[in-house]
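Ligand: benzoyl coenzyme A. Inputs:
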Amino acid sequence: MSINYADRIPNNVGLSDNRRLQRALESWQPNYMKWWGEMGPDGSSDFDVYLRTAVSVESDGWANFGFVKMPEYRWGIFLTKPEAERVIPFGDHRGEPVWQEVPGEYRAPLRRLIVTQGDTEPASVEQQRRLGLTCPSLYDLRNLFQINVEEGRHLWAMVYLLHAYFGRDGREEAEAMLERHSGDADRPRILGAFNEPTPNWLSYLMFTYFTDRDGKYQLAALAESGFDPLARTCRFMLTEEAHHMFVGETGVMRVVQRTAEVMRELGTDDPERLRAAGVIDLPTIQKYVNFHYSVSVDLFGQEISTNAANYFTAGLKGRYLESRLDGDHRLTADLWPVHTVREGRIAVEQLSALGAVNERLRDDYIKDCQRGLERWNRALETAGADFRLELPHRFFNRRIGNAANLRISPDGRLIAEAEWQSNASQWLPTPEDMAYVDSLMRRVTAPGKIANWIAPPTRGIDGKPWDFEYVRFNAGN
Ligand code: BYC
Ligand code: FE
Ligand code: FE
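Predicted complex:
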């Protein structure tokens, strides 16, 4: 059998000349398609979706738009172009040429980083698999599917590294990516947030704002890696990540705008009346912010981490924009402010910057999260609403790190169990809140129509109007 690889699996990694890689991918690909069919977007296989497919890393190649049937999407493998004479930017090997093969001494930690990154990608597809059934518009349905195929491609990106550079155990890890499942009691996904359900579109918009943004920061840290193929594949993934966060930021904005609009029309901020009018009251939106932010903040790991220090010293995973930072890029003598809990109080202590690289990445992430809230709040201000959305304290509702399983209020106080119990329903979505939000989720698929709880977007995709028929259901087969 002769397969035109450049056509079926668009790539810039020389797949058509690499028999070993072809064999590995050929045996993995049917299992991937089976997984996509069983765990990927529900009921998505028979219609044409206006999707972007990356066919090369040239500026005209990574944004190729056209109608595609979802299972026929061409998942490709792309690394950004090599940087001439690139050297390792940090750690013990700083200044040495980057590695084009896996250094034997770092094989295990490198594989672990790639597996952890790869595991999140299919996890998110699993979490979002039923959302298409309740899409608020065709525009939103198309964006959901775009994100789903790209998260699928991100899995391919990590599987490529495992197949091309890790031999037999890499192939086993690639299979295992399709065997763990989000929320599975026996074989869960690796990281906490990827086992939480994404039951409705408000959760999904929060997820793409907060959790995909963890992706941005983790990918940026891996994009500094001394293992050059990892750095280059993460750089290309980051171009796609921008769209995922755009969907989250503009999506939450549109929910906020729609609520503010109805608040004005009715002249009320009473949640009961707003719910009766079919929109999501702002306190409920705040609770969803609190939940999705806190589980995403957990994804950065412990404040002081020997794993992270080892990754850094070895040159495997850097800081955000490492190559542009000042200093010696070794961190052995530096300090970093770290949040701790001492004698019943939250404190900030100066601790080893090397141990604190997870916390530093979290700091960068938190600042970035804040920007979207400021934009949403400006929209509230413009609409004449008094309510302002806030990020809770970084220690609120944590499962990982110094504040794990402590009771900490959104305003950053260590509180007694009784105070937590009497306030938790004000801070996190309750079963009633979730049932209300779920009750709004009804499928709208007529071009130009949109669900009542969200405003239309200000513009469409690829220069098309927002009410363009982005998904064609009657395309036949
Ligand atoms: N849940 O020393 P620590 C994305 C574990 S998102 C469960 O602090 P480390 C995407 C940890 O594994 C980006 N377990 O750990 C977004 C360790 O286990 P062991 C994903 C957790 O290694 C949306 C132990 O606790 N990419 O792309 O310094 C849609 C000790 O902790 C959690 C990456 O994460 C948790 N939240 O830091 C689609 C990059 N946190 O060794 C896609 C790769 C920690 O005791 N991963 N643990 O068994 C890493 O860099 C690191 O693994 C972590 C953890 C930053 C996650
Ligand atoms: Fe991704
Ligand atoms: Fe993403």
